[in-house]
Design brief:
There is one protein chain. The protein is mostly beta strands. It is 11% helix and 42% strand. It folds into 3 domains: 136 residues, Nuclear Transport Factor 2, Chain: A (Roll), CATH 3.10.450; 126 residues, Nuclear Transport Factor 2, Chain: A; 118 residues, Glucose Permease (Domain IIA) (Distorted Sandwich), CATH 2.70.70.10.
Length: 421
């Protein structure tokens, strides 16, 4: 079976002719577009016209030495590549499905491997050049195309499914949840909520890489508009989100310790416990999520506990100031470096979802203390971060004027379309 994913050859090749390489690969020759004389432009840059590019992927139970042997490269070459520094090539991440390529030069009737190309991810790749005495390496990246897109829809079912139905990337749901992470409870989104978003999305070779930058958005939740505008704040030297009046969307605490999960058991004074069968107060909020899901500190603070207890399982407790503390229970494991006395930042990973301790399934029990007493964080009047400085406000309002008009002009006809910049 032909496992080659794609093959390119430069000028002089006859379209659709087939032949067999010395190492048993059957190849179809194709003409390609020139970038400059004597070279062809490929996914990995320019390839000389006496060479071909073979793209493939690692097969199950295939090692680096197996791949190299198919191209008449010995174990010593595989060893030299495999022992490169991890920032260049991490042999432990060489696994089934990862893409690679070889550049083969046609010399004296044979195809000689000149370069090995390995994709570290969808954007970055490393080139190993065998044409020198010592293997040369070069880290490169595929061109990223940034597109400006408008998406809008009334939510039916879920935000994720709604995005799929209008032809937008469903990962935009995660990005919107991040923009509104302080102000909207995304675990209680209901049908007939709606959104409008103007954003940039990055593509490589025509495929989205799941990287977004929301420029402006309006998320109508329970009939209330929640507008957000990205603005570079001079005082913090960071891109932050503000509403129409210049109030920050950022609060002292995040709305939840896990991203885009669901509440499986709320804070209550009378709950039937699924393990003990007894009715008692549940002084925390449970978020169900797959094992291994990152758990974030909901605010800046200092770790006071990072240990294991019989009922709590692996847990972390953080003191944020003299008023507030939070606790995160049932972790599968505590994040590296998280221990008592360590300062953490809002949004920092402190552990991973699990079911250790008294738990029936993977979740994090989030507990919230105010003045030493456990309370429901969603009924507390949590303080917001500092608003825009008075001198910054006129510039901000001028900046968002056209964006605000653009948002208002977007119709809710379930659309997702690119804007020509």
């Amino acid at each position: 079976m032909n496992r080659n994913l794609f093959i390119l050859i430069l000028s002089g090749a006859i379209l659709a002719i087939s032949f067999t390489l010395p190492f048993g690969k059957e190849v179809s020759l194709k003409r390609s577009n020139y970038n400059k004389e004597g070279f062809v432009n490929t996914s990995y840059g320019e390839i000389p016209n006496n060479s071909i590019l073979i793209m493939d992927a690692i097969q199950p139970n295939e090692f680096l030495s197996n791949v190299f042997s198919k191209y008449n490269l010995g174990l010593e070459v595989a060893y030299e590549v495999g022992t490169m520094p991890e920032d260049i090539f991490n042999v432990r991440q060489f696994k089934s499905g990862n893409k690679y390529a070889f550049v083969l030069a046609h010399e004296k009737g044979h195809f000689i491997p000149k370069k090995f190309i390995y994709e570290k991810n969808v954007v970055d790749y490393v080139v190993f050049d065998f044409s020198q005495e010592k293997i040369a390496t070069e880290l490169k990246s595929k061109p990223i195309v940034k597109k400006k897109i408008i998406s809008a829809a009334v939510i039916k079912g879920s935000l994720y499914q709604t995005l799929i139905e209008i032809g937008a990337n469903p990962l935009l749901a995660v990005e919107l949840a991040d923009v509104y992470r302080w102000t909207i409870d995304f675990y209680r989104i209901q049908e007939n909520d709606f959104f409008k978003a103007v954003y940039y999305e990055e593509f490589v070779e025509g495929k989205s890489i799941g990287s977004f930058e929301v420029e402006a958005s309006n998320f109508n939740h329970f009939g209330i508009d929640n507008k957000a505008f990205a603005y570079f704040r001079e005082s913090s030297q960071q891109l932050e989100y503000f509403d129409e009046e210049g109030h920050t969307l950022k609060e002292f605490f995040l709305r939840a310790p896990v991203a885009y999960s669901r509440i499986s058991s709320p804070y209550t004074m009378n709950r039937y416990h699924p393990v003990t069968g007894q009715k008692k107060a549940h002084l925390g909020t449970d978020y169900a999520a797959p094992t291994g899901t990152p758990i974030y500190s909901t605010a800046n603070g200092v770790v006071t506990h990072a240990t294991y207890a019989k009922y709590n399982g692996n847990y972390v407790k953080i003191k944020h100031n003299n008023t507030y503390s939070t606790q995160y229970l049932h972790m599968s494991k505590i994040a590296s470096g998280i221990k008592p006395g360590v300062a953490v930042e809002q949004g920092q990973v402190i552990g991973y979802v699990g079911s250790t301790g008294l738990a029936t399934g993977p979740h994090v029990c989030y507990r919230f203390w105010k003045d030493g007493k456990q309370v429901d964080p969603y009924k507390e009047n949590i303080p917001k971060a500092a608003p825009l400085e008075e001198e910054e406000l006129p510039s901000y309002l001028n900046f968002i004027e056209s964006l605000n008009q653009k948002l208002d002009s977007i119709s809710l006809n379930d659309t997702s379309q690119e804007i020509v910049i």
